[in-house]
UniProtKB/TrEMBL annotation:
Coiled-coil segments on the chain, per record: none
Protein's recorded name: HTH cro/C1-type domain-containing protein
SMART domains per the UniProt record, alphabetical: HTH_XRE
One MF annotation (Gene Ontology) recorded for this entry: DNA binding
Domain HTH cro/C1-type: start-end pairs: 17-70
Length: 273
């Protein structure tokens, strides 16, 4: 989520959320438990001080049984001044890109997470979320994966990970084994090209944080970076060039694709159920 100065658009969106919540007879805490937000976060959304991320906007619409009305309002407001022309949400960037380049130093990227791994991530990062809220966020993530990998013209996906990512057990060892097997399967199926930056690399440009680069046919390249509350679109030419150069540098620091896959298999073999 992104804490911003109150705007008339988000104040209006928040008022609609509050109206729907009141109609359900729920407190802010009761709504929050259903969508994976704290009661204070719901209060900020309703005041227009906090703009929900995609997963939470989807969960709010579903929990409040708004029939898509709240989600359409969110997409309309969110697209104004944020996304490049022709795009309305992050899933548009993913589904229309001809190339996706992603670096992550903490977790397996959402694009290639298994359902159990993704669920564990949601439970760990949002411990207050209800089971229903987790289920809704999980469905949203899996739909985004399908939109990318089930396209007839699926994009070229290049992923660079810090070695710590494949050693970090998320959920439990059974979940992590299944995740590493799925990662290997994705590489074998040529869905993505994977490279690992070894732990012996003490300093590398990826320490600045996770990011993505999206390349399109006939449109300018854009990038996005994650931070605690939100994901930010980067369109400025100089900043996009820096992201591209950073990804290139990370590929240079990383093991070869073959060596990276061997490392994943080695880590998988060391795990025990």
């Amino acid at each position: 989520m992104g804490r911003k100065k109150i705007s008339p658009m988000w104040k209006r969106y928040g008022a609609e959320v509050r109206k729907c919540r009141d109609a359900c007879g729920w407190s802010q805490g009761q709504l929050g438990s259903r969508v994976g937000l704290s009661s204070s976060a719901v209060s900020l959304v309703e005041s227009g001080s906090l703009k929900p991320q995609t997963d939470h906007a989807t969960a709010l619409d579903s929990a409040l049984e708004a029939g898509g009305r709240l989600l359409r309002m969110w997409e309309n407001f969110n697209s104004q001044g944020l996304f490049p022309a022709g795009f309305e949400k992050f899933s548009d960037l993913e589904s229309k890109a001809v190339e996706l380049h992603e670096y992550h130093g903490l977790l397996i990227p959402g694009l290639v997470q298994t359902p159990d791994y993704a669920r564990a991530v949601f439970m760990g990062t949002q411990p207050w979320a209800s089971d229903d809220a987790i289920d809704r966020m999980l469905r949203s993530r899996l739909e985004r994966q399908q939109a990318v990998f089930e396209r007839s013209d699926r994009p070229i996906v290049l992923v660079v990970l810090d070695e710590y990512v494949i050693h970090r057990v998320v959920g439990d060892e059974a979940v992590m084994k299944a995740q590493l097997k799925y990662l290997i399967d994705c590489v074998d199926a040529r869905k993505l090209r994977l490279q690992i930056v070894p732990r012996s690399t003490r300093l590398h440009p990826g320490l600045a944080g996770p990011f993505r680069v999206y390349t399109f046919d006939g449109r300018p390249t854009v990038a996005s970076c994650e931070y605690f509350f939100d994901e930010q679109i980067i369109e400025t030419e100089a900043q996009v060039r820096r992201c591209v150069a950073t990804f290139d540098a990370l590929q240079g620091e990383a093991l070869s694709p073959g060596g990276s896959l061997d490392l994943v298999r080695q880590v998988l073999g060391d795990l025990h159920d």
